[in-house]
């Protein structure tokens, strides 16, 4: 077996490598310099944007974009030094159809990236806000260019792709300084509604954390089966979940104590079941089977047994026959 051709190829590769070694070393040095420049540019952009904008997310976005842009520029310069025949036009032509395939393969990544950029620019919510998306609710920990991380109230982390947050409805609980809470309270039908309304409002006004403006209120919302339901509504500030739960706990305790101290009934759901002895002789007799309603004045319909012919009685003959 003749290995001379293979040996010549190896020698040629070695000579080419030795000739290109200075370019490789110089290219690596240039790339390290660009990495240092990218870190410096990132820090500079973050300081400048932080001083001119109150948005921490926007400052982080711009600093990341500056860092990535410097690294891409460094890679292009390094490749040009190592491979003198390389140009950006040759890179584009080399990608060709492969670039289109890569674009389709990373479509979701690009979509999430673009949505993350738009979220950071428009700022429908910021880091520290409490949001609700579908079944997930918690505090925003980080807004990255690909996904947003929230910490749920029970101490778990949820990663949500930015494209979903950008294209779907998101509830921001801390978008405003105040938040209104409500709870339905049932009183007995024998209780005076105006008195119960006044007591509920007085109870809410005496609770710490309930705002006086807008003032708390109580409105009738339902005439239920066993109670008259009044809806107590009050405002709190700040609107964070911990403050909301604390205020609701104090308000409900105050309302319950206030109503019971003043003799207002808080009825349980009740159900009335009426039983009767239904036989053929009493079926339809409203005097014996009233089922919760009075028989009424005067004569009432007789039982069906009294108005129906006995069983086995032949029908009357047709006179026409």
UniProtKB/TrEMBL annotation:
Chain ranges of the Mechanosensitive ion channel MscS domain: 108-170
Keywords of this entry: Cell membrane, Membrane, Transmembrane, Transmembrane helix
Family named by the database record: Belongs to the MscS (TC 1.A.23) family.
Bilayer disposition of the protein: Multi-pass membrane protein
Gene Ontology CC, one term: plasma membrane
Transmembrane helix keyword on record: yes
InterPro entries: LSM_dom_sf, MS_channel_C, MSC_TM_helix, MscS_archaea/bacteria_type, MscS_beta-dom_sf, MscS_channel_2nd, MscS_channel_C_sf, MscS_channel_CS
Annotated localization: Cell membrane
Biased composition, class Pro residues, residue ranges: 311-321
MF-aspect GO terms: mechanosensitive monoatomic ion channel activity
Boundaries of every Mechanosensitive ion channel MscS C-terminal domain copy: 183-265
Stretches that traverse the bilayer: 20-45, 65-83, 89-106
Top-level taxon of the source organism: Bacteria
Descriptive protein name: Mechanosensitive ion channel family protein
Bias-annotated ranges (Basic and acidic residues): 279-290
């Amino acid at each position: 077996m003749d290995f001379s051709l293979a040996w010549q190829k190896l020698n040629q590769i070695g000579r080419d490598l030795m000739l290109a070694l200075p370019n490789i070393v110089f290219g690596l040095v240039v790339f390290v310099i660009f990495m240092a420049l990218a870190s410096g540019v990132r820090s500079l952009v973050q300081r400048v944007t932080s001083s001119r904008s109150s948005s921490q997310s926007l400052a982080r976005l711009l600093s990341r974009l500056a860092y990535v842009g410097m690294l891409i520029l460094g890679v292009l310069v390094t490749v040009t030094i190592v491979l003198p025949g390389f140009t950006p036009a040759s890179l584009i032509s080399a990608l060709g159809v492969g670039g289109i395939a890569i674009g389709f393969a990373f479509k979701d990544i690009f979509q999430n990236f673009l949505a993350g950029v738009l979220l950071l620019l428009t700022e429908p919510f910021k880091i520290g806000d409490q949001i609700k998306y579908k079944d997930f609710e918690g505090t925003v920990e980080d807004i990255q260019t690909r996904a947003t991380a929230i910490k749920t109230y029970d101490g778990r982390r949820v990663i949500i792709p930015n494209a979903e947050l950008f294209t779907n409805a998101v509830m921001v609980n801390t978008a405003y300084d105040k938040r209104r809470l409500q709870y339905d309270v049932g009183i007995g039908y024998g209780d005076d509604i105006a008195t119960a309304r006044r007591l509920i409002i007085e109870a809410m006004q005496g609770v710490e954390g309930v705002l006086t403006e807008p003032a708390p209120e109580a409105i009738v919302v339902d005439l239920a089966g066993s109670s008259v339901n009044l809806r107590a509504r009050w405002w709190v500030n700040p609107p964070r979940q911990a403050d909301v739960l604390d205020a609701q706990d104090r308000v409900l305790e105050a309302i319950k104590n206030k109503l019971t101290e003043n003799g207002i009934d808080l009825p349980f759901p009740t159900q009335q079941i009426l039983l009767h002895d239904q036989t053929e002789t009493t079926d339809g007799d409203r005097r014996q089977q009233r089922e919760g309603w009075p028989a009424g004045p005067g004569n009432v319909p007789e039982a069906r047994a009294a108005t129906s012919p006995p069983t086995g009685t032949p029908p009357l003959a047709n006179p026409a026959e």
